[in-house]
Automatic annotation (TrEMBL):
The keyword Membrane does not apply. PROSITE patterns: ABC_TRANSPORTER_1, ABC_TRANSPORTER_2. The keyword Nucleotide-binding applies. Pfam families: ABC_tran. InterPro entries: AAA+_ATPase, ABC_transporter-like_ATP-bd, ABC_transporter-like_CS, ABC_transpr_LolD-like, MacB-like_ATP-bd, P-loop_NTPase. It comes from Sporolactobacillus nakayamae. This is Putative ABC transport system ATP-binding protein. It comes from the Bacteria. Residues 4-226 form the ABC transporter domain. Transmembrane segments: none annotated. Keywords: ATP-binding, Nucleotide-binding, Transport.
Length: 226
């Protein structure tokens, strides 16, 4: 069963008289339970594709279906709703709020959705447990290592119980040993059934996913083509 179906997706950025064809006729299908890495050099269109997948932007042309919803046909305000309900984001620089503890950071998505205090705390602790960090729940981000901060960010992404995790260079700020640990954690979440898409310029990281897709000059190709 498909989680993501993209067909003939186009995106062009216009800058005065010049334009950049950032996504060039993208066809991509991702099954439920898959773990896909999208690998490509700087400027190849990874972020543009990720923004599209994450419902932060809509294509100029083409069709995008995410978990049965026709994204390309939605109004912008409905896009945000789908995004909050279906997608968990993981970023290179963790994007944790520095004045909140680990568990409070993980609670945030539930706070926005109006989940009650007790339920929120219990679920956030369960999410921290699933990334092996329950004992650090009361720590502030600056009291945690980079790898631990990324695990908190992954717990936060899980707190919305998303259909899909989108990770944008999740190991970009980490050393190679910690990167491996984060990839092992993502693999474990995938083994438990979570669909994961990650973008990276790092082939070693990309190879730890089940499937690799390459992007270059806005064009996709199955497999490694670096
Ligand atoms: P990557 O994430 O692989 O580095 P991007 O998706 O950021 O690639 O960029 C793809 C191409 O689109 C690049 O040539 C980039 O310069 C261009 N681009 C990206 N965002 C914009 C924008 N907002 N306005 C104009 N050009 C952009
Ligand atoms: P640390 O204090 O470095 O986090 P731990 O004993 O908690 O040490 O964990 C050892 C390593 O195993 C850690 O680097 C961590 O990334 C990984 N790890 C621990 N628990 C889990 C878990 N539940 N899921 C994934 N990785 C875990």
């Amino acid at each position: 069963e498909a989680m993501i179906t993209m067909s003939k997706i186009e995106k062009t950025y216009k800058l005065g008289d010049t334009s950049v064809h950032a996504l060039d006729h993208i066809d991509l299908s991702i099954e439920k339970g898959d773990f896909v890495s999208i690998v490509g050099p700087s400027g190849s269109g990874k972020s543009t594709l990720m923004n599209m997948m994450g419902c932060l932007d809509k294509p100029d042309a083409g069709k995008y279906i995410l978990g049965g919803s026709h994204i390309d046909l939605l109004k912008d305000r409905d896009l945000a709703e789908i995004r909050n309900r279906k997608i968990g984001f993981i970023f290179q620089n963790f994007n944790l709020l520095g004045k909140l503890t680990a568990v409070e950071n993980v609670e945030l998505p539930m706070l926005y959705r109006g989940v009650k205090t007790k339920e929120r705390r219990a679920y956030a602790l369960a999410c921290l447990r699933s990334v092996g960090l329950e004992e650090r729940a009361a720590h502030l981000p600056n009291q945690l290592s980079g790898g631990q901060q990324q695990r908190v960010a992954i717990a936060r992404a899980l707190a919305g119980d998303p259909q899909i995790l989108l990770a944008d260079e999740p190991t970009g700020a980490l050393d190679s040993k910690t990167s491996k640990e984060i990839m092992n954690l993502l693999t474990k979440l995938n083994d438990n059934g979570r669909t994961i898409v990650l973008i990276t310029h790092d082939l070693t990281v990309a190879r730890q996913a089940k499937r690799t897709v390459s992007i270059r000059d806005g064009k996709l190709q199955e497999g490694e083509h670096i």
